[in-house]
Write a structure and sequence with these properties.
Leucine Aminopeptidase, subunit E, domain 1, disordered N terminus, 19% strand, 4-stranded antiparallel beta sheet, Alpha-Beta Plaits, single chain, alpha/beta, 7-stranded mixed beta sheet, 14 helices, 37% helix, elongated
Length: 393
């Protein structure tokens, strides 16, 4: 699989394409997989720079591994390999490696990547225990800090020498009961970790507007236990990248399967601003609202209007289902290209507009969340300026 990480206009510029102007990223991906000779070479992109800047174009290896959880302690690596190596039993194939992550969790890698989708779209029972099987890929970051490292750091924080108000305190003071309590409070104020050792979120801002608590958090939306979380979806509900892929990876393939069924019944793509819902799978929330955001075209297609409509439709849906809490990311500010300033401003203003015109709203909690620091800064600035301190009391 070839993953495209540059803008369509960049490919048009370096390739001189004209007849493919209507292709979106997924269609382009399919085109290049079927016709690899069309993929632009590095020389070609350097020869035809975009706005004077040479493009860097690379391919990323296909996903050929699955993560298998809930493996019984009685099951050996050999038995696991025998099961997933049998095409008839598991839809798998020839295995290149099996690695144990933790007790009951293994990474199974196949020689052929095409079997991964087949393996993940069926149920697996081994020794009367149902396995949890999801696609797996290594993170791209070379120097990533592991979730366990974060957890260990926080657990050991109170054992370290700390300073406060210019006064250094020794290990002895920290071992006293008062010292332990104080250090416990300090460590908990830095970051809140969910029990799964990987769902860290940090609260940046918290205030009350009318009857609704508004919270800004930096972190992973899939870890929250609000009634609903919002997925920034495309019109085909193909959850293949960004937040959408993370939701399916953590919530289970049944989310994608239900989305496929919705599209099968609709027969037409969702339009920007429209929303649908699916069950939440293994996530902590009760439902997932899939909101289709607009693709940025410098405002020519009323993108801000459609984004505002998407945010307000999420809130309308929430109330229609009698839910009271929701988490919303910065819709369309990723691959869809809406600038962060415009995207965060629109989301915040749409949220305030909804609360203003629905005076009897039952929504009690709205969380704005993202993993990108520049988005968090944008949200924070807009929340402070749009709502105002006096209005938030």
């Amino acid at each position: 699989m070839i993953i495209i990480t540059v803008l369509m206009s960049a490919f048009h510029a370096c390739m001189g394409w004209t007849k493919f102007d209507e292709l979106d990223f997924l269609q382009l991906d399919a085109l290049l997989v079927a016709n690899p000779h069309l993929f632009p070479s590095k020389k070609m992109c350097q020869k035809n720079p975009l706005n004077g800047n040479p493009l860097k174009v690379d391919t990323i290896e296909e996903i050929n591994s699955v993560q298998v959880k809930n493996v019984s302690s009685n099951v050996s690596s050999e038995s696991l390999g025998s099961y997933f190596g049998d095409r008839k039993k598991s839809s798998g194939g020839d295995i290149s490696s099996i690695q144990q992550e933790t007790n009951g969790t293994y990474i199974v890698s196949f020689k052929e990547a095409f079997v991964v989708l087949d393996v993940c779209t069926r149920d697996h029972i081994l020794q009367n225990v149902e396995l949890d099987v999801q696609p797996f890929w290594e993170p791209f970051e070379e120097n990533i800090i592991s979730r366990q490292q974060v957890y260990d750091y926080l657990q050991n924080l109170r054992k370290d020498i700390s300073s406060k108000d210019g006064t250094f305190r020794s290990q002895d003071i920290q071992e006293s009961e008062a010292g332990k309590n104080e250090m416990q409070n300090e460590s908990e104020s830095i970051i809140s970790l969910n029990s799964d050792l990987g769902s860290e979120t940090e609260e940046i801002l918290n205030f009350k507007y009318k009857n609704c608590e508004i919270v800004l958090r930096e972190g992973d939306i899939t870890t929250l236990d609000t009634d609903a979380i919002v997925n920034a979806a495309n019109g085909r509900l193909e959850h293949m990248g960004g937040i959408a892929a993370a939701i399916v990876r953590k919530g289970g393939f049944e989310i994608q399967a239900e989305s496929n069924e919705i599209m099968k019944q609709r027969r037409i793509e969702l339009k920007p601003g429209e929303v649908v819902s699916t069950k939440a799978g293994k996530l902590k929330c009760k439902t997932i609202i899939h909101a289709v955001g607009p693709v940025w075209s410098n405002g020519w297609n009323h993108e801000i209007f459609h984004l505002s409509r998407a945010v307000q439709n999420c809130l309308l849906f929430l109330e229609a289902k009698s839910y009271t809490s929701i988490a919303i990311p910065a819709i369309s500010t990723g691959i869809f290209g809406i600038p962060i300033e415009e995207g965060t401003t629109c989301t915040v203003m749409a949220m305030k507009y909804y609360l203003d015109i629905h005076s009897n709203s039952k929504i009690k909690h709205i969380c704005l969340i993202d993993v990108r620091k520049e988005v968090i800064r944008g949200f924070k600035h807009r929340l402070e300026t749009v709502f105002g301190i006096s209005e938030c009391e």
